[in-house]
Amino acid sequence: MRNEARVQRAEHQFRLVFDRNPAPFWIFDLATLQFLEVNQAAIDQYGYSREEFLAMTILDIRPEDGWEEIQRTLEESRDGGPPVPRVRMHRRRDGGLFEVLGHLARLEFDGRPACLVLAEDVSQRLAYERDLAWRASHHPGTGLLTIEALAERLDAGAAGYTIIHAQLRGLQMVADTLGREAGDEVLQAMVARLATLGARYGLLAYQPAEDFVLAVASGHDPQRALEALRDAVSEPVRGRDSFHQLEPRIGVADSPGDGASADLVLGCAAQAAHAARENGVVVLRFDHALAQRHADRLQLAGRIHLAIERDEFELYFQPIRHAADGSPAALEALLRWPQPDGSFIPPSDFIQLCEDTGQIIALGRWVIRAAAHAGRVLADNGWAGLPIAVNVSAVQLFNSDLVGEFTRAVEALGLPPGALQMELTESSLMRNPAQAMQVLESLSASGIAVALDDFGTGFSSMSYLQHLALDSLKIDRAFVADVERNPRNAAICRALLSLGHSMGLVVIGEGVETEGQLDWLVAHGCDHVQGYLLGRPMPLRELLALLALARDSG
Fold first, then answer.
1. DSSP-derived 3-state class of residue 98
2. In what order do the strands lie in the sheet with 247-254?
3. Whole-angstrom distance, CA of residue 226 vs CA of residue 252
């Protein structure tokens, strides 16, 4: 009786643990796959009654395409190997599918070989993990692959692909100008347009804020894909209320020729796209000479930073003279970078690089201070009324406190407000005419004269020009060349002189290299002249000697 009581108590405890366990449990016959026992959690999870469960096999809760996998698992278990927990698809009574991690243990039940199964519902956990994995490999705003994920997929696949990297200048400007919603509409329209190319030719990735990358798989024609992408990005994109014309710059690189890994090939295509932008072309294929040029640019950019810190740059000065009598009217400060061997790195090699890297802000600040020091030296040598004109880039104009920098430099050296002037090109003004107008008004209010350099080459709008706070216009050297013999140049110069004078501005002729050019400008009322005929750029000490000689001879 005691033994029977112990058995009954053990059975009661098993039933209590089995039935009231919150995880679905069941036992099935290894030979027939028939359910032998099932707990309440399984009944609640799957929607079958206990009687329905006991009339079924385990195949009835699995999709048909998973039956073979069940047989393999059971055979592995019969061979004595420990059952390995695996995720499988299960089906509820209503037909709904969900993912289950099955934990199995062999046992003997009612004298028959059987298997105990704990069915852990992992649908939500796996969905969350898949969502995290998706977010880690896709850009959330577009649903496209990230560049990192694209590189991983390319490295995992076969070689022989082509990378087409497209920079779409103007895409970010839509959001900055018209708002994020308008920018997102244009972005999504472009994504929809390019997604078809990704599906057709390989893989498509997005790199905020303006770059798309198409990986053309082997077996597809890269040239045809390139032409299709170029056509797609060149068409205007429709926003809510307007069309937007983006400016594409496309770089192309191939695997394995341009790199052993996807990262290298992607980098090569990006370099080619940057070079296309610099060279003013739409498409450029990567080559190793291009890579060397970029490496040289990076090295030079690092040297520029150190050169600013070490005060390696120098200012040269070119006279601007009164056309009527040749007397000095002003000086233009020109930046030079001397090297230890006595050579100079041309400004064309580093000025644009400074603008691209943002170092033009620090370099421009140095130029303003150096020009102020030169102004102090001029004043101490009796030339206090000779102003120095400093060239300013568009990056400085729109991204720095020019008024404050000019004012602080002049005040620190005890110079009068007009000691420093500013020159900027017409094209730089037209990047943002409204903001430029505000900056020029502030400069004018602070007593800083402004000259518009290279006038006539930037296609500026007369509606903006008439409202700009300018003091002088500089006729570009291209129009001054052969002005005495070329009727077209002469007509342009006459028109520019008339325009400048009608607006009350001083007009300066640049690039004067011959007596004929000088005589023509003087005869037609040009106010000031500048060029090699009247004085080349020179260090301050040589300029002081030239000015002293002119004063003594006068």
1. strand
2. 202-207, 211-216, 162-169, 247-254, 283-285
3. 9
**Are 104 and 85 in contact, with CB atoms under 8 Å apart?**
yes
Q: DSSP character for 39?
A: -
- CA distance linking residue 216 with residue 166, whole number of Å: 13
**Residue 262 and residue 269: Cα distance in Å, rounded?**
11
Selection from 249, 244, 255 nearest residue 203 by Cα: 255
What the block records as the tokens of 326 is: 């040749």
Question: What is the rounded distance in angstroms from the CA atom of residue 508 to the CA atom of residue 488?
Answer: 19
Distance of CA 535 to CAs 227, 249, 382, 481, 484, Å? 52, 41, 20, 17, 21
Instruction: Give the C-alpha separation, 497 to 113, whole Å.
Output: 107
Under 8 Å between Cβ of 214 and 225: yes
Residue 519, Ramachandran bin (φ over 0: left; ψ between -120 and 50: alpha; else beta): alpha
Per-residue pLDDT 10s for the chain (554 aa) are 777 767 667 665 666 667 777 889 999 998 899 999 999 999 999 999 999 999 999 999 988 887 877 777 776 666 555 566 788 889 999 989 999 998 888 888 888 888 889 998 898 888 888 888 888 889 888 999 999 999 999 998 877 899 999 999 888 877 777 778 888 888 998 999 999 999 999 999 999 888 999 999 988 999 999 999 999 998 888 776 677 888 899 999 998 888 889 999 999 999 899 888 877 889 999 988 877 877 788 888 889 989 998 999 999 999 999 999 999 999 999 999 999 999 999 998 898 888 888 899 999 999 999 999 999 999 999 998 899 999 998 888 888 888 899 999 999 999 988 899 999 887 777 777 778 888 888 888 888 999 988 776 654 556 567 778 899 999 999 999 999 999 999 999 999 999 999 989 999 999 999 999 999 999 999 999 999 999 999 999 999 999 988 777 65
Q: Phi, psi at residue 460, to the nearest 5°? A: -75, 155
180-183 CB contacts, 8 Å cutoff, 24+ apart: 182/239, 182/240
Give 318's DSSP letter: E
Q: How large is the angle between the packed helices 262-279 and 147-156, nearest 10 degrees?
A: 130
Taking the C-alpha atoms of residue 97 and residue 116, their distance in angstroms, rounded to an integer, is 22
Q: Which residues are bridge partners to 166 per DSSP? A: 212, 250
Q: Rounded distance, CA 363 to CA 15, Å?
A: 83
Closest CA to 330 of 320, 318, 341: 320
Task: List 213's β-bridge partners, or say none.
Answer: 165, 205
The span from the CA of 55 to the CA of 92, in Å, is 15
